[in-house]
Amino acid sequence: MIALLWSFAALAIGPMIAVRLLHGRSIRSLFGRGGTVLRDFVKAAATLIVIYVLGITVTSLLPGEEGTLPGLDLRRWLTFLPLALIGIGIQTLAEELVFRGYLLQQLAARFRSPLIYLLLPSILFALLHYEPGLMGPNAIYVVAATGLFGLVAADLTARTGSIGAAWGLHFANNAAALLFVSSGGALQGLALRISTVAPETEGFVAMIVIDAVMLAIVWGLCRLVLRR
């Protein structure tokens, strides 16, 4: 699992080569405005973490059968945690360089309409998360939720001029899903807890809706926080 995350470094090489050889730009230009990437990363990641913790706390108090089961034991989890966090950082950065870095920038340079340069990378990003074998009939809802995330990330990138905020959201979201409470499947190997709601069941749709609502709240707050 950790090796899979680290292997995304190869994905990051593609846009780096493209901007140098095809467009004569510096690799740094993929990241956007200098000096804001790490600052926006921290602000966006912190915003998502706060809202998600509040959301999980509230939903845990509601009646229902949803819960979690033990995953990786705490000692092993802590042992793998540093490498896993670096791996998630690599994986999310690679995807941001492709979708909110290279693709968004190239489309924005050619088309004035945000419907093109915000939507197209988000649609492609969403379609790559279509997994009917794992998600069953819920696969289309996962694609829709992923597309929403892509739009939020693209909007924040366009507004801030760097991929920092999008990367921060992506990193915090994936860290929560892979390391803390996993929905099961092939990516549950590093999680501390495993959700009892299987990805292909009706109950999973409710979780997707809740996540979408929290993401909308995070987006609104990020737009306020990132102005400062």
From TrEMBL:
GO terms for molecular function: endopeptidase activity; metallopeptidase activity. Keywords: Hydrolase, Membrane, Metalloprotease, Protease, Transmembrane, Transmembrane helix. Residues 79-175 form the CAAX prenyl protease 2/Lysostaphin resistance protein A-like domain. The keyword Hydrolase applies. InterPro entries: CAAX_protease (IPR052710), Rce1/LyrA-like_dom (IPR003675). Pfam families: Rce1-like (PF02517). The lineage of its organism: Bacteria, Pseudomonadati, Pseudomonadota, Alphaproteobacteria, Rhodobacterales. The chain crosses the membrane at residues 6-23, 44-62, 74-94, 115-133, 139-158, 170-192, 204-226. GO terms for biological process: CAAX-box protein maturation; proteolysis. This is CPBP family intramembrane metalloprotease domain-containing protein.
